[in-house]
Each structure stands twice: as C-alpha cells, then as structure tokens.
Design a protein that fits this description.
The structure holds 2 protein chains of 2 kinds. Chain A is α+β, with helices and mostly antiparallel strands. Chain A has a domain of 102 residues: Thiol Ester Dehydrase, Chain A. Helices cover 19% and strands 31% of the residues of chain A. Chain A is built from 3 helices and 5 strands, in the order E-H-H-H-E-E-E-E. A 5-stranded antiparallel beta sheet of chain A has the order 1-3-4-5-2, covered by helices on one side. The longest helix of chain A has 13 residues. By secondary structure, chain B is of the alpha+beta class. Chain B contains 3 helices and 6 strands; from the N terminus they run βαααβββββ. In chain B, strands 1, 2, 3, 4, 5 and 6 form a 6-stranded antiparallel beta sheet that branches. In chain B, strand 4 and strand 5 form a beta hairpin. Classes of the chains: A alpha+beta, B alpha+beta. Chains A and B meet through helix 1, helix 3 and strand 2 of A and helix 1, helix 3 and strand 2 of B.
Chain lengths: 154, 144
Amino acid sequence: MALDPSFVGRTYPPTDPYEVGREKIREFAESIGETNPVYTDPEAAKALGYSDVIAPPTFVFAITFKAARHLVVGDPQLGLDFNRVVHGDQKFAYTRPIEAADRLTVITRIDDIKSLAGNDVILISGEVRDAAGEHVVTAMTKLVARAAEAEAGR
Amino acid sequence: MTAKISYDAVEVGTELPAQTFPVNRADLIRYAGASGDFNPIHWNEKFAREVGLPDVIAHGMFTMAEAIRVVTDWTGDPGAVADYGVRFTKPVVVPNDDKGALIEIAAKVAAKLDDEARTVRVDIVATSEGQKVLGMARAVVRLA
C-alpha cells in the first residue's frame, strides 16, 4: 500500500541531546580503519583550529538515522514497513564538523514521499544543531520500501 | 578549517590519490557495533540469503565512510568537506573467508565551483569486484 503523501512536510519534535564523546569518535574512526589523528588526538585537532577531536564525516548518520527510525519508521500513522526498507541515497550538508563534547539535537522532517514502480520512496532530513542552536549538519536520507512481492534486493 | 590543498593548484580533471580499502566480516561486526546498525544482512549469511542477497553485504554507510577518506586524506582537514552524497547502487559482497572484499576508490576534481569560497566538486568512483557500488558519489570541498 502506497504511503500517504500528505505526510510530506511533517516535522517531528527535536530529539533529546546526544552528547558526543571522544571515545565514541575514536571507536567509530577505528571501525572504518581511520588513522587521521584529528579524530583521536585533541592536539592534532587544535592544530587545525578545532577545540577538540572532530568526527569523521559520516559519523552523524548514527544519530540522525536513529531519530528517523524511531520517529518516522515508528510512526504508526505512516505505516512504513521497516522490513522492506533499503537505503537508497544519503547526503550530508555540513556547516562544520562535529566535535567531541557537542550536544546535538536532531529535527527530523519528511521531505518527500513518492511511489515508483510499486516501491515507496521516502526522503527524510535530519537537521542537527548544537547546544547554542547553531546548525552543524543536515543529513538527507532516501529510503526505499520495496513492494511486498519484490523481496529480492540489497 | 585548513585544507592543505590550494584551490589555485587544482584544475578540472585533477586526480586525487586512489586508495583500496579491504573489508572482511570482522570489520563489519566492528562497524555494526560502532555505528549501531545491527541489521543481520551485514553479519548473518543465512539471513542475507533468505532475503535474496548472494551473501553478507557491507553496510552502505561503511562504503560511504571509506569513499570520503580519499577526499579527507587529500585535504588533510576533514572539515573541508561541505557536502557529500552517494547513491547505493550495488552491494559490496563480503565472503566469509580470510580475504573478504576490496573497495576501490578513485576521485577527481569535476568542477571548480566558486573562486570566492574556493570550493570544488569532487566526483568519486567506488568499485568492488569490478562493479560500481556507488552512484552519484560527489563531495563539495573547500580548499585553501
């Protein structure tokens, strides 16, 4: 069943703050094989003008997708079946990199809903702001919910 | 923000140093833990086959994370990345052997966007087993 396009524009309340930890950044950086010291050594980060270690560019996805999954996929009125969802596209627009000790909130919004060849395509944005309310990054996530009969995919 | 590459030193067609990133099952488990994405298609072969996949596949976000390393290693400062986007077109299949898979990343300057902001668009090509695994993989980067 196609998703209701009247959900386009729906904006969910901001998440509780996510406090970015140095060791969480280190763990993520190591998990992708990163060796750039700007992710693990505060002095290296300071040398580039940051106040603490920064996070790799895709680190923020864990925060925005958790919000999207909880709010949008978990929205019973929308009725998106997560078992049929694959990640189609991902984009990030950065104002600045995430730094350790940032307290980040996400405002999640449904930007678009389309039906293509029986698949539901939903575009979700997660606008990430710091404790001062300044923009840090926006994540734009396109999810594709495959038609029920087309089970093969990625 | 202090990229080590000067805007004036690059032109359309400038190639970034290409890199190859290996990925095995243990890497996927580690990434699952670090990212919080425990979808079983990334670690459970039986489950992956049941949903029609050839084998366990890498997280798309893992491939996306590796692809931008070619750009951030080039600029030195990851904060130089202003925009980054990809389309997940083909999965990176990761067999359960001692080799795993390879993700090969090439990138080049596709456009000089803004002489004032000193931004360029970098187009990225990601392949595994000779197949393109990302589409429309692009970053906008602020150079020095």
